[in-house]
Write a structure and sequence with these properties.
16 helices; 13% strand; binds 5-phosphoarabinonic acid; 5-stranded mixed sheet; 2 domains; alpha/beta; Rossmann fold; 5-stranded parallel sheet; globular
């Protein structure tokens, strides 16, 4: 399904020389003995997930299908990025659909929320508010505005059908609020952290509300779980990728640029940045994750990558088959001189740009490239790549003796902000 090509990664160590470490860490992950082992629920989630709740997600989405043309998802970080990455990857940026999705609760920007409320005022709205803690300020504030908007538009009674909360099974203010207002609720499992939670109702419900076949997402997840349940570095490409990252950091590369050639994967890059950055960036260690969408960003960042400070390596996610293709038309006048491409598929042009860039960056620029190929941007592939990157993240972090599942540093800005806001103790 997903393959790693490290032939252009300019590695100075053999990946296989890490077999012993990989075997040890693989055991730690699967036997749940490493730091943060309370948060390894995602490992066998493809088998252990709550099947009844999963069916309820499908039923709720089905029930609301004809009642809405606008799904508003309210959440931030792990309660936001995965759902958005999945929806955009699977449906593209302008899908042929009568439903749109709008994301709020991921910013304090007053302009943003005001414009959203204005934009959705005449639409048939359904809201999914997502927060594990139930206390995240960005989400709670946006939801307060949204709740008032919804109650004014529909009345409290109809809001019971139109607002769904995804939160902790028992704790937190959102759970209490949802129970009091009579909203349908879905559970964020205790043993899965925010950035690994897209495979739970956190990601599955927004995807289902947008008409995505979440059974196929889970099929992909399960196949990846089975395919990657081996410590053998000759066959486990997710582990080969994790080891390659460690080798590249040993060679002095402290920045990883996650590159795609599809605008609908831009948010996957954002999701990847949280997954890797929040998992690995602690105790003064880790590789800074960055992301770029080519060829767009070749016209801005390309110069730096080619000739700038040699701080980075690239991880290219290469999609074999586009969701849609288009053919360059012939133009008898040829005023734009583009007729030499007439009759060619645009995806072929995209692939040639990729090939040329790879050679420019690796051979001329000396920038290492890890190339991961993905067959397509389907629901199944989304589920598959989630597990692939989860297990690679756990491996790469444990190889550094880092707990991949906590994020103590995130609290610092919140403490300062709460003091400035005068939040009661
Ligand atoms: O990964 C994380 O822990 C964070 O990104 C959280 O997901 C984010 O802060 C949202 O938290 P919550 O779901 O509690 O609102």
């Amino acid at each position: 399904m997903m393959k790693l090509d490290s032939t252009q990664a300019l590695l100075k160590e053999e990946i296989e020389s890490y077999q012993e470490t990989v075997t040890r860490v693989h055991k730690m992950i699967h036997e749940k003995t490493g730091p943060g082992n309370d948060f390894l629920g995602w490992v066998d989630w493809a088998e252990t997930y709550d099947k009844e709740e999963f069916e309820r997600i499908i039923q709720v989405a089905e029930k609301l299908k004809d009642k809405t043309n606008c799904v508003v998802v309210c959440g931030i970080g792990g309660s936001y990025l995965g759902a958005r990455a999945g929806i955009e990857m699977i449906q593209g940026m302008y899908p042929d659909s009568d439903k749109e999705v709008v994301f709020v609760g991921n910013t304090f920007s007053s302009t943003y929320i005001s414009q959203v409320l204005n934009h959705i005022k005449d639409k048939d709205v359904v809201v999914n508010v997502i927060s594990k803690s139930g206390t995240t300020t960005e989400t709670a504030l946006a939801f307060r505005l949204l709740k008032q908007f919804m109650e004014k538009k529909y009345g409290k009674e109809e809001c019971k059908d139109r607002i769904i909360a995804t939160t902790d099974k028992a704790r937190g203010t959102l759970k209490a609020l949802a129970d009091k207002e009579g909203y349908e609720t879905f559970v964020i499992p205790d043993n899965i952290g925010g950035r690994y939670s897209v495979i739970t109702p956190v990601g599955l419900l927004p995807m289902a509300l947008m008409g995505i076949d979440i059974k196929r997402v889970m099929d992909g997840l399960k196949d990846a779980y089975n395919d990657l349940n081996t410590d053998d570095l000759k066959v486990n490409d997710a582990y080969r990728y994790a080891v390659s990252r460690r080798i590249l950091q040993n060679q002095g590369y402290n920045v990883e640029m996650f590159v795609t050639y599809e605008p609908q994967l831009t948010m996957l890059g954002e999701w990847f940045k949280q997954l890797m950055g929040e998992s690995e960036g602690k105790e003064g260690k880790g590789i800074l994750p960055d992301s770029a969408t080519f060829s767009t960003d070749l016209h801005s960042l390309g110069q730096f990558i080619q000739e700038g400070n040699k701080v980075l390596f690239e991880t290219l996610l290469k999609v074999e088959k586009p969701t849609l293709d288009a053919v360059v038309p012939n133009d008898p006048e040829n005023l734009d001189t583009m007729n030499y491409l007439a009759g060619k598929n645009l995806d072929w042009v995209n692939k040639m740009a990729m090939q040329g860039t790879l050679a420019a960056h690796v051979e001329t620029g000396g920038v290492p490239n890890l190339v991961i190929s993905l067959p397509d941007m389907s629901d199944y592939s989304f589920g598959y790549q989630c597990y692939w990157f989860f297990i690679a993240t756990a491996m790469t972090c444990y190889m550094l003796d880092i707990n991949p599942f906590n994020q103590p540093g995130v609290e610092v800005y919140k403490k300062n902000m709460f003091k400035l806001l005068g939040k009661p103790e």
